[in-house]
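Practice problem: predict the structure.
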Amino acid sequence: MVQEILRQEEHARSPQWLLVDTFGELDGNYTIVDWGGHPKEFLSLDKAVKGAAAKIRQAVTMVARSREPLTAAGAGRHVEVYPHIVGARLHGVQVWSGTDDQTPPPRPRVGAWDINLTTLTALGSPEWAELADIPEEQRGQERSLANMFAQVQTDEGELIAMKRIIAAVPGSTYQGIWTVHRRDGSSFRSHFSCRIYEQPVDGAVHRIARGISQEVATGSDGRPEPLVLLEHRLLEADVPAGEYRALINLRNLRLIRWVHGSPIPEQIAWRGIADEPAPEVHPDDHRTMIDMAKGLAKSSTTGRLRVRGVDGGWVPITARVSLVAIDQETTAGLVKFTIDR
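Answer:
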């Protein structure tokens, strides 16, 4: 009995999994963003694990080259490394290091992702697709940022996140804990960390948020903690029947997300997935759309537009756009529209 208690205490003191971000820049300047299920604010590798920092860097180099998990044992040590890759880039690794008589605890569920802040599209790793329960037909391909947000419940930090998306300043970082809803009705709390980079894409320079997320514990009752949403600051009343509401980036007039409480129009193409036409405004209506955006400097604007439908045709809408202050420096457009019958 005494030996069993001692073994349990030893297990409680055993090393935990580290989540180390690399975000595809294999320069050795890695940070810890989660330690044993406890989120960390970009904790310096050298300051946190001085003795193991060099070995972790070596492990990062090895899994970046092999693109496969690594298990190493010898000289009384046992090391496990699991890479998280999006496209060709290693976004981070999960690392466990202990003695050869210790057993690693269960590896936390982690997924990596990219958000192209220029095109407002998102791409997740296979682990993220599994964790978030993304439909099979949408895995491994880019989808619209609004499609990603459609399954995410945000926290009080959404104002900051919206500013990061709209301003897209290279080098800026962001962390938060949001709730992700799965198709089976379940949900989980996801702590994410990301950094914005400039990256060449098809001959142009795009701004990309490279990120990694880990499932974290919920409250004591097993449910996510109460959240304060951006939309509570945008909207005071319920959405009237037949009206749709969305937040758009005024720099490129692209959809960021649907407003919570708004229905999602099934006949309009917006998801940015392979089996759906690309989101688009009719070419003859571009001038109207641009004039509406410019007019926001004075007041809300109204206009009639045709947008691409899921069947490839054009869906006529009547839209009213209002300027929304994310903060003193950053604005977005709140679009309220109805579909013309």
